[in-house]
Amino acid sequence: MSRKIIVIGNGMVGHKFCEKLCDKAKPGQFEITVFGEEPRVAYDRVHLSEYFDPEKTAASLALADLNWYLSRSINLILGNRVSAIDKEKKEVTAQDGSIHPYDILVMATGSAPFVPPIPGSDKKGVFVYRTIEDLDGMKAHAPHAERGAVIGGGLLGLEAAKAMLDLGISDTQVIEFAPRLMPRQIDDRGSAVLQAKLETLGLKIRTSTNTSEIAGNGCIEAMKFADGTEIPVDMLVISAGIKPRDELARDAGLEVGPRGGIVVDTLLTTSNPDIYAIGECALPNEMTYGLVAPGYEMADVVATNLVEEPKTFEGFDMSTKLKLIGVDVASFGDPFAEGEGVRSISFENSSSGVYKRININETTGKLLGGILVGDAEDYNMLLQNVLSELPLPEAPEDLILGARGGESTGTGVMALPDDALICSCEAVTKNTICDAVRGGNESIDGIKKCSKAGTGCGGCLPMVKDLISGVMKEEGRYVRNTICEHFDYTRQELLDLVKLHKLKTYDEVLDKFGKGHGCEVCKPVVSSILASVYAETANRKPVAQDSNDRFLANIQKGGTYSVVPRIPGGEITPDKLLVIGGVAKKYNLYTKITGGQRIDMFGAHLQDLPAIWEELLEAGFESGHAYAKALRTVKSCVGSTWCRFGLHDSVSFAIEVEKRYRGLRAPHKIKSAVSGCIRECAEAQSKDFGIIATEAGWNLYVGGNGGSKPRHAQLLAQDIDKETCIQYIDRFLMFYIKTADPLTRTAPWLDAMEGGIDYLRNVVVNDSLGMAAQWEAEMSTLVDNYKCEWAEAVNNPDIRKRFTHFVNAPEVKDPTVSFVPMRDQFRAEDWKGKKEPAKQTTPSA
Amino acid sequence: MSDTTNPPATWHLACRVEDVPDDGGSCVLIEGRQIAIFHFKRIGQWYATDNLCPHRQQMALSRGMIGTTGEEQMPKVACPFHKKSFSLENGKCLSGDDYCIQTYAVKVEDGMVHVEGPA
Questions:
Q1: Could you tell me which of A241, A238, A287, A239 has the C-alpha nearest to residue A262?
Q2: End of a domain among A268, A290, A306?
Q3: Is residue A436 helix, strand or coil?
Q4: A118: which of A251, A418, A425, A664 is 20 to 30 A away, CA to CA?
């Protein structure tokens, strides 16, 4: 017969307990019921402040969905609190009056914010910081507030202050009772550095300040302090600490600590043998643990004991690292260690806001703990040193200052002992991770999947990455960028093979040089190769193209597409502008000017695309290839045609260049620009190739890009004429197309080239490889064979059929598409909660 | 592949064979539900799944690229939005997430494609 388990609380620890127990239990061994007082399934409270990120929703913080519980036959009761426990009858009574018997009761009731007894703390505009509902309340109030304050300068208080800044309340003060910030984690000097740093970021901080009253008429208006001063405030968050939620246990007659917390033994059993307590509500060893990792460990201890394997809770390391308003703060081991044989080494740079301290035991030669403010990069390694009790290097200061001169002292991650705990959230050791790498998992995702390391707080991921490359290096594994599991070749090798063997289709290439049946990685790569070798459009084998190439448009949020006609050089006639306006109006499209000097129309239904393009083609437009790994735009400034500084006609040159390379497919997108003088208004030096007019001709730059890693292009040739410039670009582009790895822009391609820009110049300008003539001929073939893919598609009834959403109801548009109005236009609906099933409605045809 | 035990299969006429591209997918509307149908010609198989990618709730799987993975050549589809991959055999997510998609049995008779369920 299965045992009835009731879990009170569906927070992070309560959820982890369910996860652990389901992993360990035999089918049918337990019948689990979970009560949660909040209306939603367990969510990630550690990253709660991410909720203020407009990209995030409550659903993106969720740890699981209803289906997760359903599929494990767990009875999850949300929005209904347990109001009483009868430990004699072994049953609980819920708020709605229902009674539920148990064999085992697990209390994971967590904690509640501690609100000091300050008069006026019940006023409107005063918040605590714990649940999504609290955050919703803050969000709603913030637009009416200008002056914010936070009571509490601890870890959570500073998080709350960050949240206030994020909500747009730039005038925010932190009020701390103690003489320094984060008194529990860091020392005086660390606090001073942290405070100075936070003040430069615009936060006001008052320490040693005792709030005596929250004043205001219904709504908070001011805070009064014990020293008689007061400040005007219209929004306040109280974050003065937490108190365990032990009231239920107390009422049931379980033993609780003098300052709160349910007393438990090392098995986490309360004073009643059938009742356990885990997480923030529990008090093992007269200690409460307000972090998630020890809570998870407690969940594991109870789950393990319930399946009758022994495990006890032996305390937990409370080291912590976090980023507070952009400042790294960490505290590990014993941050304040003192006593005989203990020596502290510290380093402070107040101008850069960095403070580091380590405490060492000179007798044992071991690291005891320390504090890091402003730069916590060494946190993981230092913590490992403490936990694994590694011997100190000869000069212990190297641990925080880095080895100066000579060989590194070998304190890298590979030097850790096998049983070093790398991921403390999921208790994964170095050995487990290294074994996984040896077993063939060479990616972070692979390691996450097979070991769960890095799936909690994610703080250990840098170490996991180092372990992966460390093991691979140890094993002498050569990292060669082969395309995917189906092709054991690099892109360059495959391109040569395709040419040599005159292979014409994806299937031929796969049959001859690949294995298996392809995937979303090799299909677009091979299609791009075929396009480069044979000047093919994407219409030949649409299913082997990236989905955007298959539909010749960019898929956008909600499943509609965007349409970008080519506007060479950014020059457009008023008549053509009217056509774009007319088309956008007719098909109800959102319009926006792109960064590449053209116009993007969003929100097109799949089956409207051919009709839209028919009208655009009619007016003389052609495909802009915005959906392809191909030449995008060649921007220009007006140059000598209008500008009083312009040296040459940059617009005409840009149009010539854009028309020459339009549709040219490459390993990645290619962008370009032409500027008419050195003022560089077209931003040519941020392009894959850019041209700038000089008195004597044109300068050609290559290898620049914007994006997440902006790069300036490097000068390839100086003061050349137009014809030479085109010649060099031909050679440069062909060299790039033939040799770059998939999805590699020109900048990283050039970075990886031995000899860099000098080598490239030798190849392109001096023809050191003797390839120039061949490349120019090949480019000329590609240029001559250019066809507009959209003209091809619109005029071919078979291709047009591709643009239907329902093949059995071609006239019906996708009924799930929906838009939200915004500034006289509209936008795509936000991502729906990632976990709830979408509603499927029946469309009216 | 169809489940031969109870309840008796309900077959829905989905589309013609030529409505689905070789080694690609199309979407059909069956009883108000969007179903993605794939003709994996290279391995001579037909598959049907929900069109909805559970990651961001997008109706897009029929527009994804199909392929295989692993030693056993597990057939799969990758969503065009964020490249989450799902097994066409059992609907399991192959990108490490714990959601999955519904799969449906397919039969082809006289040039017409039929899908079992969803009722």
A1: A287
A2: A306
A3: helix
A4: A251
Are residues A516 and B59, on separate chains, in Cβ contact within 8 Å?
A: no
CB B53 within 8 A of CB B61: yes
Pairing of strands B85-87, B74-78: antiparallel
Count chain A–chain B contacts defined by CB atoms under 8 A.
Answer: 124
Greatest Cα-to-Cα distance within chain A, rounded to the nearest angstrom:
97
Contact status of A814 with chain B (Cβ, < 8 Å) = yes
**A103 and A249 part of one domain:** yes
Q: How confident is the model over A748-768, as pLDDT tens digits? A: 888 877 778 888 998 899 888
For residue A448, the chain B residues in CB contact (below 8 A) are: 96
Mean local confidence (pLDDT), B45-57: 92
Identify the domain containing residue A573 by its residue range: 549-628
What residues of chain A lie within 8 A of the CB of B23, using their CB?
507, 543-544
For B32, the closest chain A residue by CA position comes to A842
Distance in Å from the first CA to the final CA of chain B:
18
B interface mutation test: which of A484, A507, A510, A520 has the most B CBs within 10 A? A520
Chain A CB contacts of B71 under 8 Å are none
Q: Where are the domains of chain B?
A: 13-116
Q: Does A517 contact B28 at a Cβ distance shorter than 8 Å?
A: no
* Same domain for A533 and A644: no
| CATH code linked to domain B13-116 | 2.102.10.10
Per the structure, the count of domains in chain A is: 6
**How close does chain A come to B117, measured CA to CA in Å?**
15
Q: For residue A402, name the pLDDT band (cuts at 50, 70, 90).
A: low
**Does some domain include residue A836?**
no
Closest CA to A492 of A479, A505, A481, A507: A481
Q: Are residues A164 and A150 in the same domain?
A: yes
Q: Are residues A531 and A569 in the same domain?
A: no
The chain A residue lying nearest B34, using CA atoms, is: A840
CA distance A76 to A89: 22
Given a cut of 90, whether residue A315 has pLDDT beyond it is no
Give me the interface pTM, i.e. the ipTM.
0.87
Indicate if A103 and A151 belong to the same structural domain: no
Span A259-283, pLDDT tens digits: 899 999 999 999 999 999 999 999 9
pLDDT, one tens digit per residue, over A636-678 is 999 999 999 999 999 999 999 999 999 999 999 999 999 999 9
Question: Would you call A829 an interface residue with chain B, using a CB distance cutoff of 8 Å?
Answer: no
Q: How far is CA A344 from CA A371, A390, A397, B53, in A?
A: 11, 17, 10, 55
Best mutation target among A806, A814, A830, A839 (most B Cβ atoms within 10 Å) is A806
